[in-house]
Amino acid sequence: MSTTVRQMIVETAHRVFRDACDMETVAQAAKGTWPKTLWQALAGNGFTTLDDDGLTWEDALALLQVAGYYAVPVPLAESILASRLLTAAGLSIPEGVLTVGVTPASKPQVEHTASGTRLSGRWTQVAWARQADHVVFLAFDGDQPVITCVDQSSIQVTSGTNLAGEPRDTVVLEGALTGDVGGLPSPWSQDSVRSFAALTRVMLSAGALERILDMTLQYAGERKQFGRPIGKFQAVQAQIAEMAIEVAAVRAIANLALAATEASNDTASSTEGAALGRAEWTIALGKVRLAQAIHVSTTHAHQVHGAMGFTEEYPMHHLTRRLWAWRQEFGNDTAWAPSVVTELREHGVWRAVTGV
Amino acid sequence: MSRFTFESIRLPDTAEDLRQDVRRFLADEQAKGGFVPVVDSWLSGFNPDFSEKLGRMGWIGMVWPEKYGGHARSTLERYVVMEELLAAGAPVGAHWVADRQMGPMILRHGTEAQKERFLPDMAKGVSYWAIGMSEPNAGSDLSAAQAKLTPDGAGWRLSGQKLWSSGAHRCQYMIALCRSGPAGDDRHGGLTNVIIDLRDPAVTIRPIYLISGEHHFNEVIFNDVYISEDMVIGEPGDGWHQVTEELAHERSGPERFLSTMPLFEALVQVTQHSEDRYLQRELAALASELAALRQLSLSIAGILEQGGNPVVEAALVKDAGTRFERKVTEVAERVLQLGTNGEGGVGVSDEIAANSGIAAAETLLAQAILHGPGFTIRGGTNEILRGIVARGLGLR
Ligand SMILES: Cc1cc2nc3c(=O)[nH]c(=O)nc-3n(C[C@H](O)[C@H](O)[C@H](O)COP(=O)(O)OP(=O)(O)OC[C@H]3O[C@@H](n4cnc5c(N)ncnc54)[C@H](O)[C@@H]3O)c2cc1C
User: Fold this and answer.
1) CB contact under 8 A, B386 and A238
2) CA–CA gap between residue B262 and residue A349 (Å, rounded)
3) Which of A353, B169, B204, B385 could form a disulfide with B315 if both were Cys (CB 3.0 to 4.6 A apart)?
C-alpha cells in the first residue's frame, strides 16, 4: 500500500464531508431524516465499500477518522465493515445501503433446507438497519462462524437509538431466506469480528476527539470574559492542553492499530495467527485508551464552552454524544481490559508494549 | 485538524536487533547481581561501574561522531537503547546527563578543543556532569538566573549559587547558566553557559536530602571561581538560546514515562492470578496509556533524527508522561499495602499476598511514592509545560 494514496483519499474525504456533511445535515439526521444526498456523495466517491481497485480496508479505516471528525450520520463504518466481512468470506458486495449485525444476542444459526438457506437469530446494535438495503450478519453454521447477507425485505426491525440519537436497531429473523454463506477465513474468529467492529469505533472517535479540540480552541479564542478571550486564562489553557494530549494519544494508538491490522493482512500464513493476535491486542488497547480520552476531552470541551456547549442549538453535542456512545459500543474499557491484561501477564508489560 | 507533528515511526530492523543485544546484556548483568531494578533509575541509580560497562558496549554517546569517541549510530538506535535501559530499571544515573544533555550541548556549541577534551570520556562512561540551571530565585523562570560572571583578564570570575543540582557531589563537571550582562528587553540576554570543574576548591557543594533520606540534590556555591576562557560555551550572551535547545533534549526522552516501569511490571506479576475486573481495567488503562506515550515519544525521536526541534511535542509528552508515572504509583498504592509483611491490599489480598514477588513490589512502590513528587517538577513543571503547549495551540 502506498501512504500517498491514503493521504489523497483522506484529503478528498475532507472535501467531500465538508461539503456534504455540515452540522445542519447532522442535526436533521438526529431528528430522523435520512441524509440521502450525503450517502450518495459518499457512495459516489467509492467511500462506502471496499473495492479491489479502490478503497482498501486500511484506507477505509483511515477514512473513518475523517468521518468521525464530521460526525457522519450514516452507517459508513458499518458498510465498510460489512464489505470487509463479505470480501473475506468470498461473497460479493451488493449495491445500496449496507449495514452489519455482528452483535448476536445468542448464537444465530443458518440452516440448509430444500427451499434454500435460512437464517434465524437476534442481533442488537445494528446501525440504521431500518434504512439498509442489505444487512450482513455474523451467524453460525453449526459451530463454524459464517457471514451472510440478507435483503431488506426479509428482516424485521425494532428501532432503537444510541446516546447520540443514531439508529441502533434490533433485528430478529426467523427462518429468513438468505443468499450465499461464507466462512470466516483462517485464522479469524468471532472475536476478530468483534475486534474489527471495535476498531471502527476507535477510528471514528479519533476524528471526533480532534473536532471537539478544534471547536474548543476556536471558542476559547472568541469568547470573552473579564475583557479578554477566555483562552488567555491559564486554567483554561491547561484544560485545552490536556485535551491536546488526549487527542494525540488516541491518534497514536489508532495509527498503531492500523499498522498492526495492515501487517496482519500482509503476513504470510505461517505467522498470520500471531500478527492477527497483535492487531487484536492493539485494538483492545485502543478501546481502553479511548475511555480516558473521551472522559477528559468531553468534560473539558463542555466546561470551556460554558452553558453554551450544553445546548441543542450549539452543535458540539453531536460529537460529544457520539463519543459517549462509541466508547460503549462493541465493548467499553472494562469489557476489553482482560484482553489487554492477558498479554501483559503472559509476556510482561514492556515486551507486550514493544511487541517483541 | 492535527496541530502537531506526530508521524508514526517504524523502527528499523537494525534498531530491533540492537534491542535484543541490550536485553541480553541486561539479563546477564541482572543474573550476575550487577544491579537490582529500581524506580527512577536514571536519577537515583548512580553506578560508575555500570556506566563504564555501557561505555564499553558503545551505548553512550551513540549518535556522536567517532572522532569524539562516539559511535555514529542513528537517533532511533539510541532511543531503543535508552528505553531498554530505563524499562529494566538499570542504574544509568551517573552518565545520563552527560549523554543526554551536556555532550550534545558541547557538540553543538562547544569549541573543537572542548569536544576533544570532554566528549571521549563521556562516551566511555567515566565522566559525569551536573546541570546548573536552577537557583533559589530562578526555578520556572530561568531568565532570572543571577550567578554572576565578572570579566577577569581573558577569563571570568564566578560568584553565586545553584540549587537542586542533581548528583553534583559525585560529578566532575557542571555546566551552569550564568549572568554575564544585563537581561535586556526580552529578559533573555546576558546569559552565558560555562563549564565548571566541581573539584575546584572555590566550589562548595552542600547536600540537600530527599524525603527518602537519599542524597541526590545539592546546593552548589561559587566562591569567586576562576573560569578560564576555554570553559565558556559558544559566545558570551548566547546562553538562553543554548539552554532552551538543551531543554528540548532534556524533556523529550522516554525517561519521562518510564521511571516507574519496574513497579508496573512488578504489579502485573504479583496480580497475575487476580480475576478482579476492575483491577484488570486499571492495568489495561495504564498499558494503553503507556503504549500511546511510547508511540508519541518515538515520533519525537523521529523528528530529532531529521534535525527538527520538537519543543511543543516534547512538552506535551513530558506533561502526559509524568502524570502517567504518578498514575502507576496511584494504582499500585490502591492494590498493594506497604509494611504488612506480604499481606496484600483489600479485595485482592489472598491472591496477591501469596505471590512471592510481593516484597520486591512493595519496595518498588515505596521508591515510587517517595520519588513521585519530583516527576512533575524536574525538567520544567507541568504548569510551565502546559503553557508551552497552549502557545503551540495558538492560545497565547
Ligand atoms: C528530582 C529533581 C531533580 C532536579 N535536578 C535539577 C538539576 O540537576 N539541575 C537544575 O538546575 N535543576 C534541577 N531541578 C530543579 C527543577 O528544574 C525546578 O525545581 C523546576 O524548574 C521548578 O522550579 P522551582 O522548584 O523553583 O519551582 P517554582 O518555579 O517556584 O514553581 C513553584 C510552583 O509554581 C508554579 N509556577 C511557577 N511559575 C508559574 C507560571 N508562570 N505559571 C503557572 N505556574 C507557575 C510551578 O508550576 C510550581 O507548581 C530538579 C528538580 C527535581 C524535582
Assistant:
1) yes
2) 9
3) B385
Report how far residue B54's alpha carbon sits from residue B44's, in angstroms, rounded to the nearest whole number. 17
573539584: which residue's cell? B199
Ligand 1 centre to CA of A235 (Å) is: 19
Phi, psi for residue A169 in degrees, rounded to 5: -95, 160
| Nearest residue, CB atoms, A217 vs list B20, B385, B393 | B393
Contact B3 A237 (CB under 8 A): no
Distance in angstroms (rounded) separating the CA atoms of residues A17 and A37: 11
Tell me the pLDDT tens digit for each residue of B333-345.
999 877 654 444 4
CB under 6 Å to ligand 1: residues? A 234; B 130-134, 139-140, 164-166, 374, 377-378, 380-381, 383-384
Picking from A128-142, B1-15, B56-70, B85-99, which range would have the lowest pLDDT averaged per residue? B1-15
Contact criterion met (CB < 8 Å) for B390 and A253:
no
Q: How far apart are CA B96 and CA A335, in angstroms?
A: 41
Q: Which residues of B touch A255 (CB under 8 A)?
A: 8, 295
- Cα end-to-end distance, chain B, whole Å: 19
Q: Check if the interface score ipTM surpasses 0.90.
A: yes
Q: Hey, CA dihedral for A148, A152, A157, A159, is it positive or negative?
A: positive
Closest CA in chain B for residue A341: B284
Q: Is pLDDT of B351 > 90? A: no
Which cell numbers hold the place of B269? 506479576
Q: Does B319 sit within 8 Å of A245, measured CB to CB?
A: yes
The pLDDT score that the predictor gives to residue A229 is: 97
The pLDDT > 70 percentage for chain B reads: 95
Among candidates B19, B284, B295 on the partner chain, residue whose Cβ is nearest the Cβ of A256: B295
Q: What is the pLDDT of residues B67-119, one digit of tens each?
A: 999 999 999 999 999 999 999 999 999 999 999 999 999 999 999 999 999 99
* DSSP letters for B2-59: --S--------HHHHHHHHHHHHHHHHHHHTTS----TTHHHH---HHHHHHHHHHT-
Q: What is the pTM of this model?
A: 0.94
Nearest chain B residue to A229 by CA distance is B395
Q: Which residues in chain B have Cβ-Cβ distances shorter than 8 Å to A239?
A: none
Q: What DSSP character marks residue B369?
A: H
Q: Do A237 and B1 touch (CB under 8 A)?
A: no
In chain B, which ranges are E strands?
129-132, 148-152, 155-162, 173-179, 191-197, 203-209, 215-227
